[in-house]
Design brief:
Helix content is 25%, strand content 37%. The chain is α+β, with helices and mostly antiparallel strands and 334 residues long. It has one domain (5-327): 4-Layer Sandwich (Anthranilate synthase), CATH 3.60.120.10. It is globular.
Length: 334
C-alpha cells in the first residue's frame, strides 16, 4: 500500500502532517481529508502538499473472486428485516428506516486501493469520487451524494432518495421517501442555522447515474455565528438519507436489525479546506473500505410502509452489482 495520501475533489494530497479525531480541527487551518464512520469514528488527516492533479499512476487492480463476497444479511434475513421495519411503521415508531447489508471479501496481498480508484474513475465516474489511504485503512468511494458542502457560512446538502433502473421505474413511494428525508435534513440543519435561512432550492429532481436513476433534492442554510464543524456534525450526522425518520427511532431500529457495523458506508468521506472555509463531504455510499486483508462494501434501501421486501432486496442488489462486479477479479480491466 502507498504512503498516506488522498485524492478527492480533484486534488492530490501528500505529506501527512496530522491525524486527529477532533472535528474542531477542521475549523482551524490547513487542508484535511476526512472519513467519519457511520458509528461516529472520526479520522481527519491534514496534508502538507495539496495540488490540483489527476490520480497518480497505479498498476492493475487485483480484487477478490466474485464468489468470495459474503453478505451480512442474506436475502431471507434482509426480507425479514424489511418486514420488521414495516411492523415498526404500523406501530407508529418510525415512518421510514434504511436497512443496510455489508459485503465482505478477502483481498489478495498485492491489492492496491489506488488501482481500484483508477478502475472506478474509468468505469463508474462519480461527482464525489475519492480515495483516502491512511495508516491501517483505505477508503475508495464513487459516491454520487453530497452530505455537506460549505462555502463560508453557507452549507448545503443534496440527499438522494428513490432509486430505479430508469426514471419510469420510480414510484410514488420514492417521491414520498425523498420528501420525508428533505424535511428531516431541513430540521437537522435548522438546529445550527440562522433563523429563516433554511431553503429547498430543488425538490425530487431525477438524475441519471451509471446503472440507475435517483431522485435528488437540495437543502441550503446559513450557519449561525459561532457554529462550526463539531456543531454541524452533532446536528446532522449520520446523514438523514441513510438513516430514516424520525432519525432517533430509525437509529435504534437499524442498530437492532443490522448485524455488522457500517463503517465508512453511510458515513462521511471528503475534504475540508479550513483556510478558505470551503468543504465537500459525500455520504459514504458506493464506497469500498480496505483494512487488513479484507475489502468491504455496503448497500441498502429505504424502507417505508409501501415497501415490498423482495423489491427492496433487489434494490440493494442493483446498487451493489455494478461496483462489486468491477471490484471482483476479472470484473474490471483484464
Amino acid at each position: 500500500m502507498h504512503d498516506s495520501f488522498a485524492h478527492v475533489g480533484g486534488r492530490l494530497a501528500t505529506g501527512l502532517r496530522d491525524l486527529t479525531t477532533d472535528l474542531a480541527a477542521l475549523d482551524g487551518e490547513g487542508w484535511w481529508a476526512v472519513v467519519v464512520d457511520y458509528e461516529g469514528k472520526v479520522s481527519c488527516a491534514r496534508f502538507d502538499e495539496v495540488r490540483h492533479a489527476p490520480l497518480p499512476p497505479a498498476g492493475r487492480w487485483h480484487g477478490p473472486a466474485a464468489r468470495h463476497w459474503r453478505s451480512s444479511l442474506d436475502q431471507a434475513a434482509y426480507e425479514r428485516g424489511v418486514q420488521a421495519i414495516r411492523e415498526y411503521i404500523r406501530q407508529g415508531e418510525v415512518y421510514q428506516a434504511n436497512l443496510t447489508r455489508v459485503l465482505t471479501a478477502p483481498l489478495p496481498p498485492d491489492a492496491d486501493p489506488l488501482a481500484l480508484a483508477h478502475l472506478l474513475a474509468r468505469r463508474n465516474p462519480a461527482a464525489y469520487a475519492a480515495v483516502i489511504s491512511l495508516p491501517g485503512r483505505a477508503v475508495v468511494s464513487a459516491s454520487p451524494e453530497l452530505y455537506l458542502s460549505r462555502d463560508g457560512a453557507v452549507v448545503e446538502s443534496r440527499p438522494i432518495k428513490g432509486t430505479g433502473v430508469t426514471e419510469a421505474d420510480l414510484l410514488d413511494k420514492d417521491y414520498a421517501e425523498n420528501v420525508m428525508i428533505v424535511d428531516l435534513v431541513r430540521n437537522d440543519l435548522g438546529r445550527v442555522a440562522a433563523v429563516g435561512s433554511v431553503t429547498v432550492p430543488a425538490l425530487c429532481v431525477p438524475e441519471t447515474y451509471p446503472g440507475s436513476v435517483h431522485l435528488v433534492s437540495t437543502v441550503r442554510a446559513r450557519l449561525e455565528p459561532g457554529k462550526g464543524w463539531p456543531e454541524l456534525f452533532a446536528a446532522t450526522f449520520p446523514p438523514g438519507s441513510v438513516t430514516g425518520a424520525p432519525k432517533s427511532s430509525a437509529l435504534r431500529i437499524i442498530n437492532e436489525l443490522e448485524p455488522e457495523p457500517r463503517g465508512p458506508y453511510c458515513g462521511a468521506v471528503g475534504w475540508v479546506d479550513a483556510d478558505r472555509g470551503t468543504a465537500a463531504l459525500a455520504v459514504g455510499i458506493r464506497t469500498f473500505w480496505i483494512s487488513g486483508q479484507e475489502i468491504r462494501f455496503g448497500t441498502g434501501a429505504g424502507i417505508t410502509w409501501g415497501s415490498d421486501p423482495r423489491r427492496e432486496w433487489l434494490e440493494t442488489e442493483l446498487k451493489a452489482s455494478r461496483l462489486i462486479a468491477l471490484a471482483s477479479r476479472f470484473g474490471g480491466d483484464r
